[in-house]
Amino acid sequence: MQVQRLLLLNGPNLNRLGQREPETYGTDTIEDIINKVKEVAEEHSFQLEHFQSNHEGELIDKLHETEGEISGVVFNPAAYTHTSVALRDAVASITAPVIEVHISNVHQREEFRHRSMLAAVCAGQVVGFGTDGYRLATLGLIEKIIN
Ligand code: DQA
Question: Which one, out of 29, 75, 78, 80, has a CA that is 20 to 30 A from the CA of 117?
Fold first, then answer.
Protein backbone atom coordinates (compact mmCIF):
# COMPACT_ATOMS: atom_id res chain seq x y z
CA MET A 1 0.00 0.00 0.00
CA GLN A 2 1.24 3.51 -0.84
CA VAL A 3 2.12 5.83 2.07
CA GLN A 4 -0.50 8.57 2.50
CA ARG A 5 0.70 12.17 2.41
CA LEU A 6 -0.31 15.31 4.27
CA LEU A 7 0.39 18.88 3.18
CA LEU A 8 1.34 21.61 5.66
CA LEU A 9 0.57 24.89 3.90
CA ASN A 10 1.53 28.30 5.29
CA GLY A 11 0.57 31.69 3.90
CA PRO A 12 2.10 35.17 3.86
CA ASN A 13 4.59 36.38 6.47
CA LEU A 14 4.72 33.02 8.25
CA ASN A 15 8.29 32.60 6.95
CA ARG A 16 9.05 35.43 9.43
CA LEU A 17 7.89 33.43 12.48
CA GLY A 18 10.49 33.54 15.24
CA GLN A 19 11.23 37.21 14.54
CA ARG A 20 7.74 38.43 13.69
CA GLU A 21 5.70 39.94 16.60
CA PRO A 22 6.85 37.30 19.15
CA GLU A 23 4.36 38.66 21.73
CA THR A 24 1.56 37.49 19.40
CA TYR A 25 3.06 34.50 17.60
CA GLY A 26 5.72 33.19 20.03
CA THR A 27 9.31 32.36 19.15
CA ASP A 28 9.02 29.10 17.18
CA THR A 29 10.30 29.36 13.63
CA ILE A 30 8.59 27.79 10.63
CA GLU A 31 11.23 25.01 10.75
CA ASP A 32 10.20 24.25 14.36
CA ILE A 33 6.58 23.98 13.21
CA ILE A 34 7.46 21.74 10.26
CA ASN A 35 9.39 19.43 12.62
CA LYS A 36 6.48 19.23 15.10
CA VAL A 37 3.97 18.42 12.38
CA LYS A 38 6.33 15.95 10.71
CA GLU A 39 6.70 14.09 14.02
CA VAL A 40 2.92 13.72 14.42
CA ALA A 41 2.46 12.71 10.77
CA GLU A 42 5.21 10.09 10.88
CA GLU A 43 4.00 8.67 14.22
CA HIS A 44 0.78 7.87 12.33
CA SER A 45 2.59 6.60 9.22
CA PHE A 46 1.86 9.63 7.03
CA GLN A 47 4.49 11.49 5.01
CA LEU A 48 4.61 15.27 5.27
CA GLU A 49 5.04 17.82 2.52
CA HIS A 50 5.46 21.49 3.41
CA PHE A 51 4.98 24.67 1.37
CA GLN A 52 5.01 28.33 2.39
CA SER A 53 4.30 31.25 0.09
CA ASN A 54 3.68 34.98 0.31
CA HIS A 55 1.72 34.80 -2.98
CA GLU A 56 -1.97 33.99 -3.19
CA GLY A 57 -1.75 32.32 -6.63
CA GLU A 58 1.04 30.00 -5.51
CA LEU A 59 -1.08 28.85 -2.55
CA ILE A 60 -4.02 28.25 -4.92
CA ASP A 61 -1.80 26.23 -7.30
CA LYS A 62 -0.51 24.14 -4.39
CA LEU A 63 -4.07 23.37 -3.23
CA HIS A 64 -5.00 22.27 -6.79
CA GLU A 65 -1.94 20.02 -6.93
CA THR A 66 -3.18 18.04 -3.90
CA GLU A 67 -5.83 16.32 -6.03
CA GLY A 68 -5.08 12.58 -6.14
CA GLU A 69 -1.78 13.12 -4.27
CA ILE A 70 -2.52 14.38 -0.75
CA SER A 71 -4.95 12.96 1.84
CA GLY A 72 -5.37 16.12 3.94
CA VAL A 73 -4.11 19.67 4.42
CA VAL A 74 -3.21 21.73 7.52
CA PHE A 75 -3.46 25.33 6.32
CA ASN A 76 -2.65 28.64 7.96
CA PRO A 77 -3.79 31.14 5.29
CA ALA A 78 -2.54 34.03 7.51
CA ALA A 79 -3.86 37.43 6.36
CA TYR A 80 -5.52 35.88 3.26
CA THR A 81 -7.96 34.23 5.70
CA HIS A 82 -9.78 37.49 6.02
CA THR A 83 -9.77 38.56 2.36
CA SER A 84 -9.45 35.74 -0.14
CA VAL A 85 -12.50 34.41 -1.98
CA ALA A 86 -10.05 32.81 -4.42
CA LEU A 87 -8.45 30.68 -1.68
CA ARG A 88 -11.86 29.74 -0.35
CA ASP A 89 -12.89 28.56 -3.83
CA ALA A 90 -9.62 26.62 -4.15
CA VAL A 91 -10.29 24.81 -0.85
CA ALA A 92 -13.88 24.10 -1.92
CA SER A 93 -12.65 22.71 -5.26
CA ILE A 94 -10.43 19.94 -3.84
CA THR A 95 -11.29 16.56 -2.34
CA ALA A 96 -8.78 16.52 0.54
CA PRO A 97 -10.08 17.83 3.90
CA VAL A 98 -8.46 21.09 4.99
CA ILE A 99 -8.01 22.20 8.62
CA GLU A 100 -7.58 25.96 9.10
CA VAL A 101 -5.04 26.95 11.78
CA HIS A 102 -4.30 30.26 13.47
CA ILE A 103 -1.52 30.60 16.00
CA SER A 104 -3.13 33.59 17.74
CA ASN A 105 -6.71 33.80 18.98
CA VAL A 106 -7.99 35.88 16.07
CA HIS A 107 -11.30 36.45 17.91
CA GLN A 108 -9.53 38.43 20.63
CA ARG A 109 -7.84 40.67 18.08
CA GLU A 110 -8.95 43.38 15.64
CA GLU A 111 -12.46 43.10 14.22
CA PHE A 112 -11.18 42.44 10.68
CA ARG A 113 -9.54 39.22 11.92
CA HIS A 114 -12.82 37.82 13.26
CA ARG A 115 -14.12 36.81 9.86
CA SER A 116 -12.68 33.87 7.95
CA MET A 117 -13.49 33.56 4.25
CA LEU A 118 -12.34 29.94 4.38
CA ALA A 119 -13.82 28.48 7.57
CA ALA A 120 -17.12 27.38 5.99
CA VAL A 121 -15.35 25.21 3.41
CA CYS A 122 -12.78 23.75 5.83
CA ALA A 123 -13.26 20.46 7.71
CA GLY A 124 -12.26 22.15 10.98
CA GLN A 125 -10.50 25.08 12.59
CA VAL A 126 -7.90 25.36 15.39
CA VAL A 127 -7.40 28.84 16.80
CA GLY A 128 -5.43 30.34 19.69
CA PHE A 129 -3.22 27.46 20.86
CA GLY A 130 0.01 29.03 19.69
CA THR A 131 2.17 26.95 17.38
CA ASP A 132 0.93 23.83 19.20
CA GLY A 133 -2.28 24.38 17.19
CA TYR A 134 -0.52 22.90 14.15
CA ARG A 135 0.08 19.64 16.05
CA LEU A 136 -3.53 19.56 17.29
CA ALA A 137 -4.82 20.25 13.78
CA THR A 138 -2.68 17.44 12.37
CA LEU A 139 -4.04 14.98 14.95
CA GLY A 140 -7.62 16.04 14.16
CA LEU A 141 -6.98 15.78 10.43
CA ILE A 142 -5.54 12.27 10.75
CA GLU A 143 -8.61 11.21 12.82
CA LYS A 144 -10.86 12.47 10.04
CA ILE A 145 -8.87 10.69 7.34
CA ILE A 146 -8.70 7.30 9.05
CA ASN A 147 -12.27 7.20 10.44
C1 DQA B 1 -2.65 34.33 11.76
C2 DQA B 1 -3.71 35.38 12.08
C3 DQA B 1 -3.94 36.33 10.92
O4 DQA B 1 -4.92 37.30 11.25
C5 DQA B 1 -2.64 37.05 10.58
O6 DQA B 1 -2.83 37.87 9.45
C7 DQA B 1 -1.49 36.13 10.40
C8 DQA B 1 -1.35 34.98 11.30
C9 DQA B 1 -2.31 33.43 12.97
O10 DQA B 1 -1.73 32.38 12.74
O11 DQA B 1 -2.62 33.79 14.10
O12 DQA B 1 -0.60 36.38 9.57
O13 DQA B 1 -3.13 33.49 10.72
Answer: 29
